[in-house]
Amino acid sequence: MTLRPAPRRPGGDALRRIGHPAPAVDPADASPHAFPDGGRWRTEIPSVEGPGPLAAVLAESERLDVPVHRVSQGSGVWMLTDAEISEMVAACAERAVELCLFTGPRGTWDTGAATRTDSGGAGPRARGHDGLAGCVEDALRAARLGVRCLLVADEGVLWTLHRLRTEGVLPADTTFKVSALIGPVNPAAYAVHERLGADSLNVPADLTLAHVTEIRRVSRAPMDLYIEAPDDLGGHVRMYEAAELIRRGAPLYLKFGLSGAAGIYPYGAHLREHALATARERVRRGRLVLDLLARHGADDGMSPLGSRDPGPLVRFPSDTA
Predict the structure, then answer these.
(1) What's the distance, CA 304 to chain centroid?
(2) Is 130 buried (19+), middle (13-18) or exposed (0-12) by CB count in 10 A?
(3) Segments of the chain assigned E as strands
(4) Measured in Å, how far apart are the chain's first and last C-alpha atoms?
(5) 255 pairs with which residues across the strands?
(6) Which of 114, 130, 283, 307 is a plausible cystine mate for 60, CB 3.0–4.6 Å?
(7) What is the pLDDT of residues 211-236, one digit of tens each?
(8) Which residues neighbour 53 within 8 Å (Cβ) at sequence distance 6 or greater?
(9) Please, how many CA atoms are within 13 Å of residue 84, restricted to the half-sphere of its CB?
(10) Which residues contact 112 (CB under 8 A, 6 or more apart)?
(11) Is there a cis peptide before residue 304, judged by omega within 30 degrees of 0?
């Protein structure tokens, strides 16, 4: 069997010719984990807010040959009709793409003025019993319509939905994805979210490579990371780090966000043209990242399309109140 050469580091050959030193790669930094299918990375297109933007993403991904494992939505289940959700479920099923919808009310759109102060208050978390109950209602409705991945931005909502999954109220194959809006920033917090029921965790796009390695030393739960982040999450563009992020962060979802674009949450028809244009550009950004990985010989290890299993994860006892 012919072994594939090690990935080429950006600019490495040219810099060596002029004697410029490059930091050594430490094998100890590499993640020992992978998805159950053996893959080390998958792809995600975020901010796919309805059937129209989804159709644009699927068409553009076919045109540009960008493999898509998951699409996620940010406005919430409550911003979609049953017919719209059913249309998105059917379109994703036809292409073996996982559909992830956000759950319900959150503080940033609630009556609490503190979320609009410099401190941010409690941020996007569900406020009070009614906020929690709204998220549960969204989860039950989405599951009834065939959605099997739900996005959460509150630790209490996550734990509650996990307990409902354990009790069979939600389907056993439902997965929960922690939003970048509350993404853990240290290994202990990451492990706690996993134990609360998370199957996939967004971490802030500004975590360093060392931070990613530290997290992987305590948890194998899949990580989601914006290779390009929207402006309200920092606007970071980390394309040249994609290979190293995979090496350190696997199993990893590469999220193709978009900086320099106006926000679209909560989405409605008044934002349709903007949503369609940004949806297509997110896919193109994905093509740029995949091309870069290929040029450096670092594009192997992708999960098969249609894969969504996070593998066995560690949980708190579900009978804990």
Answers:
(1) 17
(2) exposed
(3) 41-45, 70-72, 98-102, 149-152, 175-178, 200-202, 223-228, 252-256
(4) 54
(5) 44, 226
(6) 283
(7) 999 999 999 999 999 999 998 888 99
(8) 47, 267, 275, 276, 279
(9) 17
(10) 121, 122, 127
(11) no
How many residues make up the chain in this entry?
A: 321
Separation CA 242–CA 252 (nearest Å)? 10
Q: Which residues contact 296 (CB under 8 A, 6 or more apart)?
A: 7, 8, 9, 10, 243
Quick one: how far is CA 291 from the chain centroid? 20
pLDDT tens sequence across 251-284: 999 999 999 888 888 888 898 999 999 999 999 9
CA-closest candidate to residue 175, choices 4, 316, 309: 309
pTM over 0.90: yes
Which pair of structure tokens corresponds to residue 271? 């934002």
Tell me the CA distances in angstroms from 183 to 64, 118, 201, 250, one per residue in order.
30, 19, 7, 17
